[in-house]
Design brief:
Elements (H helix, E strand, L loop, with lengths): L17 H20 L2 H6 L3 H6 L5 H4 L7 H22 L1 H22 L11 H14 L4 E4 L3 E4 L4
Antiparallel strand pairs: 1-2
Helix pairs in contact: 1-5, 5-6, 5-7, 6-7
């Protein structure tokens, strides 16, 4: 089996690798659909822990990751995906990177369902998956410097 590796540099982004590109396109595409479809999409595909347990809407731990609460919510999640995801994909390869992204994103959603089973408000956004990427980046590149707000240097292991 041949595995393509896309080398980015630890720190700020790197090249736009195939997995990151696919996730960016999917998130921006769903956001456009969400903008025109209205709030009904959030209630059907956002993760509602109470509905997850009572109505058996088992697709929601997957679909909530592609919905966002506004343009800035989407932009900050996708910026973090680009910054950390490209480097991780260059180390792991596309298949492993995408698998990890979905495992941590779905895991974050299921954790919410376990910790707040009666909550009836939908959870949306890719933040759970992005935090998983950030944790993996901190483990693999602990000495890499990340600038908070572009000003304050912090080692990845502390972030």
């Amino acid at each position: 089996m041949v595995r393509q590796i896309y080398y980015g540099r630890p720190g700020f982004g790197g090249s736009l690798s195939p997995g990151v590109k696919w996730l960016l396109i999917a998130n921006f595409g769903v956001y456009l659909i969400q903008t025109f479809a209205g709030r009904e999409l959030i209630y059907l595909f956002g993760l509602n822990p109470a509905a997850f347990w009572s109505e058996k809407v088992f697709w929601q731990p997957l679909t909530y990751m592609f919905l966002h609460g506004g343009m800035f919510h989407l932009l900050f999640n996708m910026l973090a995906l680009w910054i950390f995801g490209g480097t991780l994909e260059s180390v792991w390869g596309t298949t492993r990177f995408i698998r990890f992204y979905f495992i941590v994103g779905i895991g974050a959603g299921l954790s919410n369902c376990l910790l707040t089973p009666g909550m009836g408000v939908p959870i949306i956004g890719a933040s759970g998956a992005v935090y998983g990427l950030l944790a993996a980046y901190g483990i693999l590149f602990p000495e890499s410097i990340i600038y908070i707000y572009g000003l304050f240097p912090l080692k990845a292991k502390y972030l």
